[in-house]
Amino acid sequence: MRQEKYLTCEKRYIFELLIFAAGMMGAYTYNLRGGVFCNAQTANVVLMSLAFGHGNFSQGFYYLIPITAYIAGAVISELLPLKVRRLHFLRWDTYLVGFEMAVLFGIGFIPLSAPVQIVQVMINFICSMQYNTFRQAEGVPMATTFVTNHVRQIGVWLTKAVGRRDRHAWQMLWKHFRMVGVFFLGGLSLTLLCPLLQEKAIWSALVPLAAGFIVMWHADRGLERSMLEQKPHGH
What we know:
Elements: H1 12-32, H2 42-53, H3 57-62, H4 64-85, H5 92-107, H6 116-133, E1 136-137, E2 140-141, H7 148-164, H8 167-197, H9 206-221
Antiparallel strand pairs: 1-2
Helix pairs in contact: 1-6, 1-8, 1-9, 4-6, 5-6, 5-9, 7-8
């Protein structure tokens, strides 16, 4: 039976680097930029409904800004890959990680006295693009900006692993457990760095992103140069 081959951008360690950085981003916005998580939009929708329910319409309408930024990130990450493929230089996935690094680098120069919404919307935007771009790690659906589904999958595969003594189930359980653990470590490390580095603490997220960027760049310009037209699984 022929073994499935995956692009470098689909490797599990790339997804772990990305979710480590996402854990850092979530901790950064919560600790220093308004006490919110910008990696997903469930909280913003809930807060908008609460604001409208309490008659605070001006605050409620504000939440349309981060939600719109998240939608815009998804739209752009759907439209740009086709144009990027025509360049025949790097994959969209690699460009995106480079773009994320540039945005986070810029955020480090925004003082904590600035309106928190500026940074929140910027991180909403790049998290949406990352979530929509990196969908499957070696054939397994994975999220790289939050862990809700990974926590659910731990419960699903734990039931199968214990009840059926299924080796595959144990492997799947471990994959999702690792994603949750790596996200946790990212949030923990950034939280410890916030008092020391303040607004520049976000620069620590450049380390895992840079590692992934270098590996993907090397693949795009080397062994996978002839595969730039190939779409990752899940697209």
